[in-house]
């Protein structure tokens, strides 16, 4: 028996953290891999559009969706203890923050810097989530996917384990964002955590931590307090976290900007430089722009918010204004971090910001 729930022509307002009030032709909650395989096989054979969501924490619905929204609630955590490490096999419907709390309570230390990041395990792999000096790729061993590129049967799905070195992880990116993986679904990830704990003290944390009495639980609590203070709660104010990525530019471009502005910048690999996207917006004439119920967050300028009943077009209008102004003033193309979903499929950012 397949464990799933069906809802027809229902609002997605409570299923996306932007709290955009659009509808889907059908919403299905699934709790087993078997159910997921069956539904995706049906969609493929019947050519029905579908999107898989966890917490809906990184999407902006632009229109009502004419296909099926699959809400992933496949849960389960398996832990294997080795001599020097813990091996975790985590199903993709588990909430990321719950995993962080769960492992800490078991004395498995190492995920604390990624506390309070919204979303599920599957999206953590897709986005290569990161914060305070740690990224998902630093812990990931593998990602298990079901592939629908080739014809599969209900009883014999095509599953594949993609090891970390083949995931092409980079800043808020992975191979799972490529079109070649549009017919794949993440079902689980493998995480390796060393038993030899080394605290990661990101520069912005140093003022909150005394090195002599540092613990993983203290780092966890401090990061939670910082995030609660600086970031809007999606349950109260609709948002998807950072709308844009911090841009990574060439060293030559960075030198020109640094000579003109005292802007925060961070050296990267291959001679590249990461620029604070929030600073760029803060130092623009549109930093306090508001259209309808859409606005820029006052404490973090990379975050666009839905104050009450904003439409996706109002949010998109602000994003386009910011994007165009930053491009004109700083010659930087701000890359969106959110995924844009049209009536049938994801829409490329390049098709929106032209």
Overall SS class:
alpha+beta
Shape: globular
The side-by-side strand order for the widest beta sheet comes to: 6-7-12-10-11
Distance between the termini: 48 Å
Low-confidence stretches: none
Provide structural commentary.
With 354 residues, the protein is α+β, with helices and mostly antiparallel strands. 24% of the residues lie in helices and 28% in strands. The chain has 3 domains: 4-72, Uridine Diphospho-n-acetylenolpyruvylglucosamine Reductase, domain 2 (2-Layer Sandwich); 77-228, Uridine Diphospho-n-acetylenolpyruvylglucosamine Reductase, domain 3; 244-335, Uridine Diphospho-n-acetylenolpyruvylglucosamine Reductase, domain 1. It has helices at residues 33-46, 96-105, 121-127, 216-230, 251-260, 277-282, 312-330, 349-352; strands at residues 4-11, 23-30, 50-53, 59-61, 65-72, 77-81, 85-91, 130-131, 134-135, 140-147, 159-163, 184-194, 238-242, 248-250, 265-267, 272-275, 290-291, 294-296, 303-306, 339-341, 346-347. The radius of gyration is 21 Å and the shape is globular. The protein starts with a strand and ends with a helix. The mean pLDDT is 92.
């Amino acid at each position: 028996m397949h464990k799933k729930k069906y809802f027809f022509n229902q609002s997605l307002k409570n299923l996306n953290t932007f709290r955009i009030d659009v509808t889907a032709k059908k919403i299905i909650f699934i709790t087993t891999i078997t159910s997921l395989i069956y539904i995706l096989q049906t969609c493929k054979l019947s050519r029905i559009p579908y999107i898989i969501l966890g917490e809906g924490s990184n999407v902006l619905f632009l229109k009502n969706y004419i296909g099926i929204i699959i809400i992933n609630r496949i849960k389960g955590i398996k832990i294997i203890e080795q001599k020097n490490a813990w091996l975790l096999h985590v199903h993709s419907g588990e909430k990321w923050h719950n995993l962080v709390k769960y492992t800490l309570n078991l004395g498995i230390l190492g995920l604390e810097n990624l506390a309070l990041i919204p979303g599920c395990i599957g999206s953590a792999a897709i986005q290569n989530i990161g914060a305070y000096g740690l990224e998902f790729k630093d812990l990931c061993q593998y990602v298990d996917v079901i592939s629908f590129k080739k014809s599969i049967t209900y009883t014999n799905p095509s599953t594949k384990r993609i090891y970390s070195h083949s995931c092409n992880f980079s800043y808020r990116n992975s191979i799972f964002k490529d079109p070649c993986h549009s017919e794949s679904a993440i079902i689980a990830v493998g995480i390796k955590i060393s038993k030899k704990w080394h605290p990661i003290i990101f520069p912005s944390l140093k003022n909150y931590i005394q090195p002599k009495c540092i613990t993983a639980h203290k780092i966890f609590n401090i990061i939670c307090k910082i995030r609660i203070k600086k970031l809007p709660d999606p349950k109260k104010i609709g948002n998807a976290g950072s709308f844009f990525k911090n841009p990574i530019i060439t060293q030559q471009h960075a030198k020109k900007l640094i000579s003109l502005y005292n802007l925060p910048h961070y050296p990267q690999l291959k001679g590249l430089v990461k620029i604070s996207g929030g600073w760029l917006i803060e130092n623009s004439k549109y930093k306090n722009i508001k259209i309808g119920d859409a606005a820029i967050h006052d404490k973090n300028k990379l975050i666009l918010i839905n104050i009450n009943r904003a439409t996706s077009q109002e949010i998109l209008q602000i994003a386009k204004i910011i994007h165009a102004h930053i491009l004109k003033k700083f010659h930087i193309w701000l890359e969106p971090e959110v995924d844009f979903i049209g009536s049938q499929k994801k829409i490329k950012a390049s098709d929106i910001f032209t």
